[in-house]
Amino acid sequence: MPSFEVLYQAAALCLTYPDDDFRARLPLLREAAPQLREFTDHAAVTPPGELAAHYVQVFDLKNRHSLYLSWWRDGDTRRRGMSLVRFKNLYRAHGLEFTGEELPDFLPAVLEFAARTGNTDLLLEHRDCLDQLRTRLTDFGTPYASVLDAVCATLPTAQTGTRP
Questions:
Q1: List of residues 6+ apart from 48 with CB closer than 8 A
Q2: Residue 1 binned pLDDT confidence (cut-offs 50, 70, 90)
Q3: Phi then psi for 76, rounded to 5 degrees?
Q4: What is the pLDDT of residues 88-115, one digit of tens each?
Q5: Cα(135)–Cα(125) distance, rounded to whole angstroms?
Q6: Distance (Å) of CA 110 to CA 27, 45, 57, 96, 130
Q7: H or E segment at 119?
Q8: CA 41: distance to chain centroid?
Q9: What is the pLDDT of residue 10?
Q10: How far is CA 34 from its chain centroid?
Q11: In the predicted structure, residue 158 carries a pLDDT above the cut 60
Q12: Which of 2, 12, 68, 153 has its Cα between 20 and 30 A from that of 34?
């Protein structure tokens, strides 16, 4: 598989809350990852408060657009705890200690992991979840869908009906 580390790191930043640091990085993101220009161009011309409110509306109010990959498979069940442990163990096996404020299955964290290590196992394993999220974001009409489009374009097509 070709190297997409820069795209994954840029996508991770685009899928986090759009604070002042995000705004400062927009020109760099635009140049480093042309696949994300639809989103970065939108973010550059959208007032900061409006972009932040949109992020909250899209990702924080309901699980319908959850950025937590294990939620797509496990929901809010006991199985999810074991899935989260698997994420942490994989990070640890690659010499990374997960210490973020978010859970280890947070898509930006998974993208950053793939960017740092070149390991796309978690993205491939959750390809069907990424496709569901991408479809829902597209149906919702949010520019965040273009970020998922770019990420999904780097991965082989998901096999329907199979679970790892």
A1: 18, 20, 23
A2: very low
A3: -95, 65
A4: 999 999 988 877 788 899 999 999 999 9
A5: 18
A6: 23, 28, 22, 12, 12
A7: none
A8: 18
A9: 96
A10: 17
A11: no
A12: 68
φ/ψ of residue 60, rounded to 5: -105, -15
Q: What is the pTM of this model?
A: 0.89
CA angle 103-13-139, nearest 5°?
Answer: 85
Structure tokens at 106: 């947070």
- Strand segments, DSSP code E, in 69-108 are none
The pLDDT tens digits of the residues spanning 17-74 come to: 999 999 999 999 999 999 999 999 999 999 999 999 999 999 988 778 999 998 888 7
Sorted by where each begins, the domain ranges of the chain are: 4-154
143 DSSP assignment: T
Helix, strand, or coil (residue 106): strand
Q: Which residue type sits at 117?
A: T
What is the greatest pairwise CA distance in the chain?
42
> Which 3 state secondary structure label does DSSP give 146?
helix
